[in-house]
Amino acid sequence: MHGNVKQETYELHEFKISPKTIRSLKTVEDTVKTEQEKRRIESEVPPFYQFDESVAGNRQAVASSLFDFIIKEKQANVPSLEDIEKEEPVKTRSEQVKDVRKELTKLEEEEPSLRLTDEAIASLLTNEASRLDKMKQELVKIIGEELSKPIRSGDLSPVRYEVERKLRLSEAIPPAELQTLITLGRSLVVETETINKSRTEKRIEEEKNAVEPTRILQGQVIVREGQFIDAEIYRQLELTGLLKNQSSNKPVIGLIAYVFFVMLIIYLHFITWQEDSYTKKKSLLIVLAIFFILVSIMKLLSLIDKEFDVQVAFLFPTALAPLLVKLLTNERMAYMTTIVTAATAGIMLLEGFSAIMQMEIALYILFGGIISIYLLGSNGRRSNILRTSLAVAGSNILFIIFYLQMTQSTYELSELLFYCIAAITSGILSGALTIGLMPFFETFFGLLSDMRLIELSNPNHPLLKKVLTETPGTYHHSVMVANLADAACESVGANGLLARVGSYYHDIGKTVRPNFFIENQHGSVNPHDELPPERSRDIIIAHAVDGAELLAKHKIPKEIVDIARQHHGTSFLKFFFVKAKEMGQDVIEDDFRYPGPKPQTKEIAIISIADSVEAAVRSMKEPTPDKIAKLVKSIIGGKLNDGQFDECDLSMKELKKVESVICETLNGIFHSRIEYPD
C-alpha cells in the first residue's frame, strides 16, 4: 500500500526551468503569504479616536487662571487710603511683572506653550481690571466654542486660525493686546480626539483574526512546464513537499496506524464470535487469503490506472469479497470484509489529487458488496451466484450514474461507454471469479460450500451410483430420508441442503454387506435368521463405521462423514437384544448400542429422526395421518428420552416444528389413492 500513498517528488532547483507542469498534491496553508496579508491589514486598519469632553474645560481653566493672576496683581497694586496716608510705596511695573511671573511658574511648567514674554505681561498690566476680565471672558468663550468640537492632530491649524479670526473680530479685545491674546488663544488649542491605543489594538487584532489563511489548494498549478522557478515558486514547492529532498515518513506512520485499525476490527469480530477455536482459525485464514487476493487486484489496477484518462478502478470486482466470504464462512464475516475491502481500495486506488482516500471507489465497492450479500441469500448454487453478479452489475451502473452526475463534468461518449462497460464487467467478474476460486478454497481449507454440496448431490457421483446399483432399496430409503430431513431443517433454520446431501450418503456403509439390510432383500431369505444375535448386531452397527471410513477414503467432506458416523448416535438395537434374551443369553443393554457419538449438530439429529421415521412408516401396512402422527411422536419422544439429542442444540420448540413438518411431508407421500377398476 505504501507505493500508492507515497507522494511524488521532483528534482528541481531554484532559478532553473521546470521540465514539467507540477500541481500541488494537497492543500496546505501558505503561512508566509498569510502573515503578509495580516501585516497589510494591520497597516490599513484606521485608529480608534476617542473624544474627550473635559479638554475644553481644562483649557478654559488654564486661560482663566492666567488672567486671574494678572488681575490679582493688578488689584493688589491699587493703594488704599491707609496706604496713601502712610505713604506706602507703590510697586513698580517691573516688580509687578516679576510677581506675575512667579505665579505663572507652575502653570508654565504644565503648559510650556503658554510662556508669556515680560513685555506681554507688562502690556496686560496697563489695562484696567474690568477690561482684563472682559478679555478673559472673551478668550474663554472662544476657546470653549472651538474645543467643544472633535479636533484631531491634523485639524489644529484650521482651528487655531478660527480662534485667531474670532479674536480679531471681537470688540472686547483692545488692539494693543490683540497679538498677545492671539498667541495665547493659538497655544490653548489642542486635540480633543485622541487615539485609544487599547481599542485600536483590539480592532487590529480582530481584523487580523478575520483574515482567511492563504492556502495552496490541492490540484493548484505551482509551476508550468518551461516556466522559470523563481524564489517564490521554489518556496511553494518546498511548502507542498514536492522536492526530492523532502521525503516524509508520515504516510508510513499513517499506513501502520491503518493496518492496526484493520487488525483491531478483525480481532473484535473474531473475539465476539461464539464459535470453536478451530473454526475461527480456519475462517481467519480464509478471510486473510481472500483479502490478499483483493489487494493484489487493487495493486494491479493502480499500476495500469496511470496509463488511462478514465478511472480504471471501476473495473474492480465489487462483490468478489462478500460472495467468497459469505459462501466460505458466514454473512457476518462478509459484511466485515466488505467494509475493510472498501476502505483499503479507497487508499490503494487513489487517483488525481485525493488527499487520503478515493471516496467514490470506496463507496462503489461498499454498495456493490452489501447488495451482493442481500441478493445471494443462503443459496450458493452457480446459477444464483451468476444472477447475483448480474444484479450487482446493475447496481454498479446506478452508482456510475450517481458518480458522473455529481462530478458535474462533461464526458465524451467513449468515456461514458467505458464506465458502463466497467460497471457491468465488475459485476460479472465478481461472479466468475467467485465460481472459479471456490474449488481452490474448498480443496485447500477442506470446506463444504453449497456449490460443493450440489456437486455431491449429482446422481452420477461414483458413491451414489454405487448405492443405487448395489443397494437400490437403501438408495430409495436415502432419497426419502433426504426429503424429510431437508424440509425439517429448513423449518428450524438449519442447513437443508447439507441435510439432503448428507442423507444421500448416510447409509453408504450398507454397500459393504447389502443383503443384511431388509430394504435390499426383496423377499429373499433374511440372513439374520441363521446368525446369532451378537453377529447380527455387529453387522448392523458396523454400517455406520464402514460408511464413515468409506466416505473419508473418497475425500468426502468431514460434515458428510460425521452424518454417516453419528446418524444413529448411541441408539439401542432392541430387536437383537430381545432375541438374545429369548435365547437365554446373559446380555446387557450397552452391548447392543451403536458406538456413537451422539448427533453433534441440528442437521445430524434431524437426519436421525427422519431415518427412523421413514423406516418405521414404510413398514406400516396401512399408514394413515393419525398413525403417522403417533409413530413420529413416539420415535422423537423415544430418542429424546434416550438422550440422543443431549449434545446438539435442538430446542423443544424446534423438535415440535420438526415433528409437524415430517408428518406433513409423510402425509403427502403416503396419501390415499383412488382404486382404479380392473
From TrEMBL:
It comes from the Bacteria. SUPFAM superfamilies: HD-domain/PDEase-like (SSF109604). Residues 470-625 form the HD/PDEase domain. Gene3D superfamilies: Hypothetical protein af1432. The chain crosses the membrane at residues 252-272, 284-304, 335-355, 361-377, 384-404, 416-441. SMART domains: HDc. It holds the Pfam family 7TM-7TMR_HD. Keywords: Membrane, Transmembrane, Transmembrane helix. InterPro entries: HD/PDEase_dom, HD_domain, HDIG_dom, Metal-dep_PHydrolase_7TM_extra, Metal-dep_PHydrolase_7TM_intra, PgpH_phosphodiesterase. This is HDIG domain-containing protein. It comes from Sporosarcina quadrami. The lineage of its organism: Bacteria, Bacillati, Bacillota, Bacilli, Bacillales.
